[in-house]
UniProtKB/TrEMBL annotation:
This is Phosphotransferase. Belongs to the hexokinase family. The keyword Transferase applies. Its EC number is 2.7.1.-. It comes from Takifugu rubripes (Japanese pufferfish). It catalyses: D-glucose + ATP = D-glucose 6-phosphate + ADP + H(+); a D-hexose + ATP = a D-hexose 6-phosphate + ADP + H(+). Signal peptide: none annotated. Keywords: ATP-binding, Glycolysis, Kinase, Nucleotide-binding, Transferase. GO terms for molecular function: ATP binding; D-glucose binding; fructokinase activity; glucokinase activity. One of its GO terms (biological process) is glucose metabolic process. Residues 31-223 form the Hexokinase N-terminal domain. Pathway: Carbohydrate degradation; glycolysis; D-glyceraldehyde 3-phosphate and glycerone phosphate from D-glucose: step 1/4; Carbohydrate metabolism; hexose metabolism. The gene is LOC101079462.
């Protein structure tokens, strides 16, 4: 606490900290948000158990952590080359890219890109409408960049839980991140995209490689660092992938080599295994979401939900008269009014003007103590997110080390996502915590350079390099 704060302010902050330890709605002992190292180790152990369930031939059906085979069997070796299209659908915006892989320079170049907004009503409307919108964006891009007449291979980043049958066939398991389009769950999204393009009839695409954004992140970093065998996203949503030993992937034939597994760790806790660390605020966020009971882990730590958790905590503290003289504004009471990107200025040491603007815009009457208490709230919720991410990442790195019977593992994690990139302290706390939880693993973190775009193209390039012995025909799923 800064020395210039008066004794009254000091007492108020002491009262606030005591509130964090005495909120009556927590299901845990002590602070509801400050998880001990022992508790994080326990969470990490639970995830490792669920990962094993997800890889099982029969147990995966009911596993909350889906552990989806991606049919990506190799990382880049530096000989890939050519021009590719990439589509990236994973949130409220959709991107189209032209990517060139230059073998001589071992570079993945983004030649051009275009961003299309996805209106809220389209996120909740018919699936055909959404895919027609995607096809229209792709067609406009091809036309405006003079790419018509070329039949370029396409990397399709579709960042939702899918059951991948082949490299170009992927069945949507369920929508997340606020999407609820009808007629898509249980369907092949590559087929839906191709049908939308055929309805237009004014352009063609080449082969399609279905790419999860975590896989794209790993592959884009793997082109620069061939020790990169893990991809992690911490943005609107959260997920991770890694290279698993084929002998452990019981759902797919084959014993030799490795395959990239899309963990879909956002579903961790969907079976109730995280109830002991969920707070009432987490439960409220889940119940108000478009998919209650689904992706519990993601709702505790990802960018789509962090701001709302903070807002609910601020409302509670205001009701208990610890903030804003007990007077909440209409804006603060409005769900979604405290977005996650609002957290960043509160934590930064150099954003006082932004903080003043934010609190005033929320219609609140505040003083310096209020601003500092809000900062502690933001920091506390963010810290829990980073530490839970670290527990999940430790589960993966410890599993890889044990799989390979290594006393010490050296690996690189490719990371993408706005929370990791823009939050002032998130990456530092995540890295510090994972070192404590996986002490026998030396982990390098590499920020992905457009994994969902360049990485998608790289997956497509690797698949082409491996042709005609295509990974999707060598390894077939077992049902």
């Amino acid at each position: 606490i800064p020395q210039h704060l008066c004794r009254t302010h000091f007492r108020l902050l002491q009262m606030f900290m005591s509130v964090l330890h005495k909120i009556p709605f927590t299901l845990t002992k002590g602070s509801p948000f400050q998880l001990s190292l022992e508790k994080l180790q326990e969470v990490s152990h639970r995830l490792r158990r669920d990962m094993t369930r997800g890889l099982g031939k029969h147990s995966h059906h009911n596993a909350p952590v889906k552990m989806l085979p991606t049919f990506v069997r190799a990382t880049p070796d530096g000989t890939e080359k050519g021009d590719f299209l990439a589509l990236d659908l994973g949130g409220t915006h959709f991107r189209v890219l032209h990517v060139r892989v230059v073998e001589e320079e071992q570079k993945v170049l983004k030649m051009d890109s275009q961003i299309c907004t996805i209106p809220t009503d389209m996120m909740l409307g018919p699936g055909q409408q959404l895919f027609d919108h995607i096809a229209a964006c792709l067609g406009d891009f091809i036309s405006s960049r003079n790419l018509k007449g070329q039949t370029l291979p396409l990397g399709f980043t579709f960042s939702f839980p899918c059951e991948q049958k082949e490299i170009d066939k992927s069945i949507l398991i369920r929508w997340t991140k606020g999407f609820k389009c009808s007629g898509v769950e249980g369907e092949d999204v590559v087929k839906l995209l191709k049908e939308a393009i055929q309805r237009r009839g004014d352009y063609e695409i080449g082969t399609v490689a279905m790419v999860n954004d975590t896989v794209g992140t790993m592959m884009s970093c793997g082109y620069r660092d061939q020790s990169c065998e893990i991809g992690m996203i911490i943005g609107t949503g959260t997920n991770a992938c890694y290279m698993e030993e084929m002998k452990n992937v019981k759902r797919v034939e084959g014993e030799d080599g490795r395959m990239c597994i899309n963990t879909e760790w956002g579903g961790f806790g969907d079976d109730g295994s995280l109830k002991d660390i969920q707070t009432t605020f987490d439960v409220m966020v889940d119940e108000a979401s478009v998919n209650p009971g689904v992706h519990i882990f993601e709702k505790m730590i990802s960018g789509m939900y962090l701001g709302e958790i903070v807002r609910l905590l601020l409302v509670k503290l205001t009701e208990d008269k610890f903030l804003f003289s007990g007077q909440a504004s209409e804006t603060l009471l409005m769900p979604g009014s405290f977005e996650t990107n609002v957290i960043y200025p509160f934590i930064s040491e150099h954003s006082l003007e932004n903080v003043e603007h934010i609190l005033t815009k929320l219609g609140l009457k505040w003083d310096e103590v209020d601003a500092r208490v809000v900062r502690v709230c933001c920091d506390t919720i963010s810290s829990r997110s980073a530490r839970l991410c670290a527990a999940a990442l430790a589960a993966i790195t410890n599993r890889i080390r044990n799989n390979r019977k290594l006393g010490h593992l050296k690996t690189t994690v490719g990371v993408d996502g706005t929370v990791y990139k823009k939050h002032p302290n998130f990456g530092e706390e995540l890295q510090a915590t994972v070192r404590l939880l996986a002490p026998a693993c030396h982990i390098t973190f590499m920020v992905s350079e457009d994994g969902s775009g360049k990485g998608a193209a790289m997956v497509t390039a690797v698949a082409q390099r491996l042709a005609p012995a295509c990974i999707c025909t060598l390894y077939m799923p077992l049902y």
